[in-house]
Amino acid sequence: MKKLLTMLALGGTVMFLPACNTVEGAGEDVESVGDCADGVEGNC
């Protein structure tokens, strides 16, 4: 049982490591939308 949980944890970690760049990029996109929505001219 312990071996199975270890394998699942390692597999999950390996799957999510490449997604770091995607999550960072999505965060930047959301931030830029927030900047545009604040109404300050020149932020869009």
Description:
With about 45 residues, the protein is an all-alpha fold. Helices cover about 75% and strands about 0% of the residues. The protein is built from 2 helices and no strands. It has helices at about 1-15, 20-35. It is rod-shaped and about 60 Å long. The chain starts with a helix and ends in a 7-residue tail after the last helix.
Biggest sheet features:
none
Low-pLDDT stretches: none
Shape by Cα distribution: rod-shaped
Strand content: under 5%
Mean pLDDT: 74
Order of helices and strands: HH
What's the Cα radius of gyration?
A: 18 Å
Q: Number of helical runs?
A: 2
Content-based structural category: mainly alpha
- Please give the alpha-carbon distance between the first and last residues: 53 Å
Count of DSSP strands: 0
User: What helical percentage do the residues reach?
Assistant: over 70%
